[in-house]
Amino acid sequence: MRNDGLFALGRADGRARLYILGSECLKAIYTAFTTGVFLTGFLLNAGMDQVQIGLVTSLPLAAGVLYPLSPLLLERFRKRKAVLGTARLFYHGLVILCVTLLPGWVPQSSLLWWMAAALLLGNGCNILVASGFPAWHIGFLPEEIRGRFFAISGIVNSVFTAAATFGASMLADAAKASGRQMYWMGVIRLAAFGMALAELVLLLLPKEPEYPKSSVKGIRLLTLPFGNRKFCLTMIPVFAWMMVSTMTLYSANTYLLKEVQASYVFISILQAMNIVTTAIVMPFWHRLLLRTSWLQAFQKVFLMFALYPFLHMLITKNTYLWLLPVTMLVYQAIFAGGTLYFNNMAYLFTPKEDRTAYLSWYLMLVSAGSLCGQGLSTLLLKLWPEDWVFRNIHIAPAQRILLVQCVLSLGFGVWFGRVLLRKLEKA
């Protein structure tokens, strides 16, 4: 994967791609600090249980219904930098800063609803302009270099994510031993807020283009993507990937922290393997793309991804020291390919002149898929809160959800290959 000229500082488009890559790296860092195992640990220390954590992390995804309204707002502006920057600032202020401070501001009895409100409002601010940045930046990533850029981005992001996660985990474990875990987790989240502000600066640096004027206005703009059959069919695996891949995002982490009692440092060391794993497997995924197509390669990811929840389901206190590393290695290798192909799904059949409208529906389905996956996980935890016991073998609720995730990924992958790909060929 040669990258000569891709980030040439002497050219405006090269600098723009460098800014985009830098913003993605910063996003990888603050996302590592504020989601996944660290968000789970923060909410657990704030006094929430598994079901409440599921609710507070899935309810904001309901704001995704606002995505189709984004083009109605953005199409009013020929220059959008000020609108996009302001909305993004409110988003970071509510979702990172406000959530960090809430446990010390409000009583425990109402913390759940204050958290949900902050996340809902913050995500709502971002969602109303969410298609703006992709529609702006994709102009610097033409089709002939897009796969290369996404592959390089995946490798570089994994380095920054692993380094940030490892450093934060050491601090979190030290804080846990000192009895001041909540304080230091707050410090980590405040550092993430600083990273988010730096990301915003980089997002705003590329030269803003003159956006193509859409020939469609008003309510017709909302329904425009439904006339593009290939785009609609492509959104099915987009929804399915988000549903399947995020289904156990928090329940699996809660299981590792509470049931298996794995340390933050041990988990983060394994997550740091993502640097090497991604660098090794990304050329394979790129070659697979060149030999097949974006959709055919993506379909194979679904089939392989089913292995991850199956292995994760088998992890216990007695097996986690050797099985969790194997499981994380499998997850990282497969997820690298999934991320590479998923990143281009929004642009495969999207016309330039109406890109904002198409991206808004794409983003809504991304949010809806996450909401459906995490919502299903939360519902199953609520319905089946107790362990199942078979001949002295305890099966925790999270393990059952991992089994469901395995079946869904495998089942969709088979249907994708046998039915959906044929429909796309005929469309």
From TrEMBL:
Q: How does it sit in the membrane?
A: Multi-pass membrane protein
Keywords per UniProt: Membrane, Transmembrane, Transmembrane helix
In terms of superkingdom, the source organism counts as Bacteria
Under the heading InterPro entries, the entry gives: MFS (IPR011701), MFS_trans_sf (IPR036259), Sugar_transport-like (IPR052528)
Q: Where in the cell is it found?
A: Cell membrane
Q: What Gene3D superfamilies does UniProt report for this protein, alphabetically?
A: MFS general substrate transporter like domains (1.20.1250.20)
Give any Gene Ontology cellular component. plasma membrane
GO terms assigned for molecular function: transmembrane transporter activity
Name under which the protein is recorded: Major Facilitator Superfamily protein
Q: Which organism is it from?
A: Acetatifactor muris
